Amino acid sequence: MEAAIPLGLALPRSSTNICCFSVLLKSSPKLNLGCFGRVPGKLAFPPPRAVSEDRADATPQWQLDFLGAGVGSPDPPEEDEEDDELLPAEANDWCVRARRSALRSIEARGLAPSLQRMVSTPKKKKNKKKIAKKKDLKKAAAELKRRKKQLDAAAEGEEDEDEEEDDDDDVVDDLRDMDDLELRVAQFADGMFDEKRQRNREAFVQTLSRFSSAPSNRSREVSLNRSIVQVQTADEVLALAAEVIDEVAKGLSPSPLTPLNIATALHRIAKNMEAVSMMQTHRLAFARQRDMSMLVGMAMVALPECSPQGISNIAWALSKIGGDLLYLSEMDRIADVAITKVQEFNAQNVANVAGAFASMRQSAPGLFSALAQRAAQILQTFKEQELAQFLWGCASLNECPHPLLDALDAAFQNDARFQCHVSDVTSSMHQEMDRPLNFSRDQIGNIAWSYAVIGQLDRPFFLHIWKTLSQFEEQRVSDQYREDMMFASQVYLANQSLKLEYPNLGLCVRSDLEEKITRAGKSKRFNQKTTSSFQKEVGRLLYSTGHEWVREYAIDGYTVDAVLVDEKLAFEIDGPTHFSRNLGTPLGHTAFKRRYITASGWKLVSLSLQEWDELQGEFEQLEYLRRILDRG
Hints:
Blueprint: H1 15-27, H2 53-58, H3 61-67, H4 88-92, H5 94-108, H6 112-119, H7 128-156, H8 168-177, H9 180-187, H10 195-210, H11 218-230, H12 234-249, H13 259-275, H14 280-287, H15 290-302, H16 308-322, H17 328-341, H18 347-359, H19 365-377, H20 384-396, H21 402-411, E1 418-421, E2 437-440, H22 441-453, H23 460-467, H24 482-501, H25 511-521, H26 533-542, E3 550-555, E4 558-564, E5 569-574, H27 588-599, E6 603-608, H28 609-613, H29 617-631
Parallel strand pairs: 1-2, 5-6
Antiparallel strand pairs: 3-4, 4-5
């Protein structure tokens, strides 16, 4: 007997319903579709016998899917095998009963395989490579998170053992979704705006550094060092270092990022920047990259294990990359470590470290005292350039290297051994104390300016240096070249200081040379003065004090911001560049200018930006100006 299906049956228009009825109609052309009437509100086909629980358990999955009783569906209602009447719940599920009736008809005609192929969902082939990659990523993420929690707990002195681990999938998603902008903001200005991010970065750096404790792989270290040296740009060096950092973070051990390679990477980045004369804004943007911040952090961790040359290279590199705007805490760290190893420094290390701190306006009295003592001990190994650079560094930070000055006076007593050349001469003192000293013109200028700044123009060594200026008789000093201007300005200030502070020495240069130097030193070709908003604001209020001020008044080689000519009162407005950035002490050129103006017979009143910022409102600022002028 043919199975009867009502024409008026309103089944949902799902793909399963359409498939089952399509198979049924194709398999039974003579299907009696008119034997059922349509009774409103009631289904008009005989109810099928319910399937027992044991039978439901043995039903194939594709049939359960067809009947709508797959995974997650409620269990089929139990029914008494002897009772043909359906339970109330199943009687209301007319769709399931219709599907069962259709299924029995299809099975009776041997078309079950066709329906199975229609109903069964083809299984997707799993990508084994993606699965393996995801597992590795989960494992690495879980390991990094575990180590991070241990480090954080150790740093805070407590560890919560009851803290539950997050799901590995969540860790992977968090790592992938981490906002790059958030990282950049967190690392801006050395992490000042996000202390938590900074602590996490330091903890991660500490984690990376632990991998280097394993036995070293010498061949890999040498290969990495060679690769760092061979690349031609700062970006390539950083990319190479970042790649190795990622490998170490994933568990590469032993790490090829030895203290030597870290110092070499920073040194090559700075050297490549210098080679292309990279603008300061580009250097600062480069320094704030995440990978660069990580590399500098690793360098700070590795400092105690660095050689003196490595410490010198790192200090020099940071001064070229960040200038006087970045790496304040890092330079303090370098100073602390350098003091512990200063007895191992050679002349080049001493000169480079002093030059780096000076160019960054980073005061370090303890370090410079130790460097001066070390320089005096190894004086015979200094080259002329190294000596000039170290003296310039000390003078720039207003640090007087008394031990070195005493050693120079004792070692070089014969002025016949001093010579001067226009260009640099590559030579050294290496225990050749009887040979002439070949100073270049620029070195002479730096040494003369340094002795003037630190107020030691009556030293015997300086007297010998000053007399070598007579060799410039045949040389032209022009205002067309920056080098000539720098030399002329330095020598001019030293000459004026000799006149004002040491007139008894009678060491002024010849009149013809003095004329050339004075003319070139006063030229404004390469010395354009800029007025800051701070100076403009103070200058405007100065006129409100009731005095007749003269702006931009020249006193010999210096220009003073404002003066009262009749009262010989000079007023100086000193911005941040006049002070060390960490201690706020006056730099060498500021202290020398103040001393020079005072020696010229003027009363000097100075106002710093820090003092000005502490004042609230224009009225308070004006009252402060009146008070300091009265004291002056």
